[in-house]
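README, section 4: Worked example with a bound small molecule

Sections 1 through 3 covered apo chains. Here we extend the same pipeline to holo records, where the ligand is supplied as SMILES alongside the sequence. The molecule in this example is alpha-methylisocitric acid. Nothing else about the input changes; the structure line simply encodes the ligand pose together with the chain.
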Amino acid sequence: MKQMAAATKLRRIIEDPNSFILCPGVYDGFSARVALNVGFDGIYMTGAGSSASVLGHADLGMMTQTHMRNQAEMITDLGALPQYATTDGPVPLIADADTGYGGPIMVSRTVEQYARSGVAGLHIEDQVQTKRCGHLGGKEVVSRDVYFSRIRAAVNARKRIGSDIVIIARTDALQTHGYDESIKRLKGAYEAGADVAFFEGLTSKEQAAQMIKAVAPMPALLNMVESGATPSFTVAEAKETGFKVMIVPFAAIVSAYAAMKTGLEYLKATGSMPDKAKEMTPQQLFRICGLDASIQVDKESGGENFKSGVD
Ligand SMILES: C[C@](O)(C(=O)O)[C@H](CC(=O)O)C(=O)O
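The generated complex, written as structure tokens:
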């Protein structure tokens, strides 16, 4: 059976009144592998995490469109591997697309390229080009008209290439323009053809519930940044509030940071790795990254490169 595109798969989930999708944030090939091995139905490419991983810099708009697209494509390639894809297609990736990286022409190009790279959904926001993480103070947003032109460019691009890629309209307007303006922006984005509402920086559970009602029937995404502007929601709470999608951008990176720091501090202090880390063999590490599937490819092709195994 021909596989459905990941975008179509995500679109069906969003359109199904009984579905909900939880996507942990991944930021590179390794974190994507770990999330896929754990078995999530969808994954999220965090721009903040990618910026930290690829550039070693904060989420201040330093990642270019090319960086982000390349990163997204590497991750969708992994989610399409036979060991992760289901009969109805690859594991859907929702990818951060920041401001779309320019005017309508660049937004359009971003949507086309993300779609061609197998991205299932992407979010475009209304921050100025010198953007920052949505949970930092001092944000600035563009006018409603400029924002809507970004959304229109995204929707037109999707239609032009006949893709099902899910367009998620994000607004960062709460900080400077307030709740009502943010709702106007999301509703206007829906009228312009966006599929999902992403109200950045919701400050309370009541506000989240109010927002869901206000934007209905537009489905909504919850950005669960722990210790950010938004209170902590469990998946059960997000579902009950009426969200369709929940992303947890820092799920992998904060876990990785804690473990990395502990291991490195231990090495520095003692001159040796912690016992737990020592237990992992190179083979085990590479098995996380598909070692056995790669060896199988060689074997099935008549290759003899791994005849005597790797163990
Ligand atoms: C969702 C987000 O765009 C991301 O890059 O993951 C960030 C997360 C963060 O930096 O807190 C955002 O909310 O702006």
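What to look for in the output: The mean pLDDT is 96. Residues 25, 46-48, 59, 96, 133-135, 200, 223, 225, 228, 249 surround alpha-methylisocitric acid (CB under 6 Å).

Section 5 describes how to batch many such records.
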